[in-house]
Amino acid sequence: MLPGRHTATPALVDGLHEEAGGGGSAADAALAHLAARRDRYHIADPARDLSPRQTVAAGGTETVRLQQRHRGVEVLGGQYVVRMERKGGKRTVTGTSGRYFTGLKTAVTPGADEALAVERAVEAAERRLERAGTTGPRDDAEDVPPLTGTARGLVVLPMGEGVLTRHVTVRGTHPATGEPVLQEVYVDARSGYPVLQYSGIKTFTPAGAAPATAARRGGATAAAAAAAGEEQRVTGSGVKQDGRTVELQLVRDDSGGYVMRDRTRTRGTGDDNQLSTWDARGKDVSDVSGRWPDGIKEFGSPTPGFGKDATEAGAVDAHWAAGKVHDYYRTVHGRDSLDGRGTTVNSLVGVTWFGTPYVNAFWDGTKMVYGSGDAEYRPLSAGLDVVGHEMTHGVVENSANLVYAGQSGALNEAIADYFGNAIKTDAYGIAMDSPDSGLLGETLCRTKTPRACALRDLNDGRTTSASFLGVAFGTDNGGVHLNSTIFSGALWDLRKDLGRTLADKVVYKALTEYLTPLDGFTEGRNAVLAAARALGVPATGLRAAERAFNAHGIVPDWELAMGVDSDLLLGRLNTTDSSVGAGGGWWVTAKSNDSGSEPYSVWAGRTDGTGALKLVSPNDGRYHVNPATDGRTVVWEAYGPGSVDLLARPLAGGPVKKLLSGRRGWHGLQVEGTLVSFSHTFRPGVPVQVGYLRLGETEPTWVGRHSRRDSTAFQSLRNGKLSYIQRTYSRPTGYRYSTELLDIATGRTTVLPQAGTPQYLGPTALTDRYVFWIAREGDDQARRAVRRANLDGTGMTDISKETGPDALFAGALTASDDAVTVTAYHRDWAWPAPGSQYRNDILPKLWQFSTDGSRRDRVSCNRGEQSQAAAAGGRQVVWMDATTGYTDLVTRARPAGRCT
Predict the structure, then answer these.
(1) Which example biological process does GO assign this protein (predicted)?
(2) In terms of residue numbers, what domain contains 439?
(3) Which of 114, 222, 336, 665 has its CA 20 to 30 A from that of 296?
(4) Which residue of the set 70, 167, 333, 481 is catalytic?
(5) Domain boundary among 69, 98, 127
């Protein structure tokens, strides 16, 4: 028996042989077993607190998944599994596993209404999209519909005593890139603060839940077409992208044409187990994600021999491969389609991105979507492993349903990679001991070698200690692609040692009978080993499985072995979307408790690490976030059920004062003496505005020019001056950008010079002598200059050039009188190119320059994401660092220099 983490209920109980009773349903028997053994499971009332979610019966076994509910509200990831054998009418429990959270105590009466939760969720998704890589809105951004949110009900997040949230799904189109947006956002149901957010789109390569009816619409359309006339099943043919002619299972419709509708696996006249391939050419990715696009038809041909058109679109490959994957799951694992109940499998091919080539594929919860490919990359349906990967996401979603974020998301990706590659190697007869057996996507390229083309390699040898990359949820959903090959590599080694079929059965059993939604690498190891024991794998095989996981560093408490070169100021912040401030020898940040269940409070400490920490904000149930300080005063936002308040308090102590209040946030806070600056938008769809307020006043002053499209943003406050970026729109020229400096005392505004015509201007930073800002004037969106000018507008120069080998993709900056620190990204982080892989060197890192640009250093060589930097005086910087897998507040007094 393996104990659970932060719960009294065991994570795994194996080797049981306990009678469960043969009467009633399998779910009834499972609940009765748990109720009869409360001393073991510590579940007070299984019938009340667990609801049957799924029962799978196969080969004399029954697996029951039970969903935890706390006071009637579903618990995210709270699932417990009971495994039984049934012979001669008698049931025997053989084991249990999963996560049941015994420490939940939270009340389940919401304080924030549903409308506010939706509004806050949409705002949070919009802010998440404003990460580096966004170049500002396109000139046609007005024509892009705003993001929308749909309330999904109450959900308890299992952190500490529990956090009651409203689950909101945010959908739409990214206003700058056109990529589909499908964000799952959980908003604290008392304060209205978004505490968890991740993307629901499962892509094959990194990318910047559809309605259940969408999956059926294709099947219903096809079924209606079949009913309109006498359906004739036909075996046709087509040529795959690799030049091979393959058989295609088709239907001749009532018009006499042939369509890619495979009904050879259906039972009787139903539409179960149907495979349909749809022509989505002319549809953009935003048209098909999370919805069924209007006007598409199944790929058709006047003859049963499909020609060049179907080949080039990727339709032949998609249709043929869907059959291969479907047959693999049915033949090897006895699974009836992706959901185990014969669901129709719809594949859409030829999708583009703003009418340009789209090189990716994804599962959106209802269907497979394949991009058109480009001059180098074939349509992604040309990879059998890609098709297997995407369809396996459907299997995962209908079994363990691993949450697509953090370690559980990486486990989700790892299992999809494993089965996708297993299907391919078996179909093509690739030897497991071939050095290329672990390559995924290697057949997609037109000119590159397979190894140069591959998008991932399960033989890459990555380990937790040497390769795990800690990132926040805003980056790759917390590392779902970044870290997946650590686990999939262990599974692939297992396949080499146990053999193809046995290893596949072990991994499938672990997925469908042991894993639950929030499981990570350690739980994944335990599930695989338990499944191997249950299948009777001999001792030599079990030792081989343990060696495979050990070799990849997947051992208990592996997270404790991560090393850093920074000094810890405050560990495990456990916050979402909150920034850091520094000034006057002090730092300020938001922090939750160790479990992340407590609403955030603002804490302060000295940047030299001495002295006691100070609790600045009240601990009153609101979320206190995004603080700033000048060493004398702290300002911050407080999210409550009715408003977002801008608050202030002296560091030395005293009452908390409310400065402003509104329904939306006050962002980019800075304070200096009696002046506070911020940016704010009054309602959805209204551009952001920069403003300032003097302490003691009640009405802010708004700066710059504003209209339906004009805005100001990226402000910095120093010595009574306020710098910001002005965005102005006019037809037919579109958006224009300028850097402006306001002298608050005199009201005089200086427009600072630029080297050329800016295509993008980013954050600003003021010092006693200079204004610094980020600029892009060329067409390469991943190269930006760090620009400087004197306060009077003279002496404009770039301390980091936009062009040349040392050009950075600068996303944020902070400055002292001695140094400028830039958060720099990589092209492949913002817009992953085909064939690119997430790795340490493309994650956000901190670079520091002298104010004249003569010195350039890396602030830290930590492996992982570095963000929210704040200059602390001299060359010291404080920042949030995710290297350890947790987000910590850390510092360095001087840069590390070069990192190898």
Answers:
(1) proteolysis
(2) 399-560
(3) 336
(4) 481
(5) 98
Q: How many CB atoms lie within 10 A of CB 307?
A: 13
Show the tokens assigned to 113. Answer: 């209404």
Q: Is residue 6 included in any domain, yes or no?
A: no
d(CA 213, CA 287): 16
**Is 582 in the same domain as 672?**
yes
Within this chain, do residues 711 and 591 fall inside the same structural domain, yes or no?
Answer: yes
- Unique residue bearing structure tokens 């991740």: 198
b/e for 180-207, b at 16 or more Cβ within 10 A?
Answer: bbbbbbbbbbbbbbbbbbbbbbbbbbbb
Rounded CA gap, 89 and 592, in Å? 52
Q: How far is CA 700 from the centre of its chain?
A: 36
396-409 pLDDT per residue, tens = 999 999 998 889 99
Q: Which helix (H) or strand (E) holds 251?
A: strand 245-252
Terminal CA-to-CA distance of the chain, rounded, Å? Answer: 44
539-551 helix and 484-498 helix, angle to the nearest 10 degrees: 150
8 Å CB contact between 576 and 187: no
Tokens of 658: 């409310």
**Phi then psi for 212, rounded to 5 degrees?**
-65, -25
Q: Reply yes or no on whether the pLDDT at 410 is more than 80.
A: yes
276, amino acid identity: S
| Alpha helices (H) in 12-166, listed in sequence order | 26-36, 38-41, 46-49, 114-129
CATH number, domain containing residue 70: 3.10.450
> In whole angstroms, what is the distance from residue 524 CA to residue 245 CA?
40
Kindly tell me if the per-residue pLDDT of 220 is higher than 50.
no
* Whether 142 is catalytic: no
211/340 same-domain check? yes
Q: Which residue in the list 390, 413, 637, 802 is annotated as catalytic?
A: 390
At 234, which helix (H) or strand (E)?
Answer: strand 232-239
Q: Would you say the C-alpha torsion 431, 434, 439, 442 has a positive or negative sign?
A: negative
Give me the number of domains the chain comprises.
5
**What b/e string do you get for 673-700 counting C-beta neighbours within 10 Å, with b at 16 or more?**
eebbbbbbbeeeeebbbbbbbeeeeeeb
Residue 135 has what pLDDT? 45
Q: Are 104 and 156 in contact (CB under 8 A)?
A: yes
Give the bridge partners for 839, in sequence order.
none
Nearest to residue 386, comparing CAs of 368, 365, 408, 411?
368
Is 415 a member of any domain?
A: yes
pLDDT tens column, 780-812 = 888 999 999 999 999 999 999 999 999 999 999
Average pLDDT on 233-260 reads 95
The answer to whether residues 780 and 879 belong to one domain is yes
Q: How many CB atoms are closer than 10 A to CB 55? A: 16
DSSP code of residue 558: G
CA distance 441 to 447: 13
Determine whether 481 is an active site residue. yes
- Amino acid occupying residue 458: L
What pLDDT band is residue 216 in, cutting at 50, 70 and 90? very low
Same domain? For 633 and 499 the reply is no
Q: What is the pLDDT of residue 412?
A: 96
Q: Does residue 184 share a domain with residue 91?
A: no
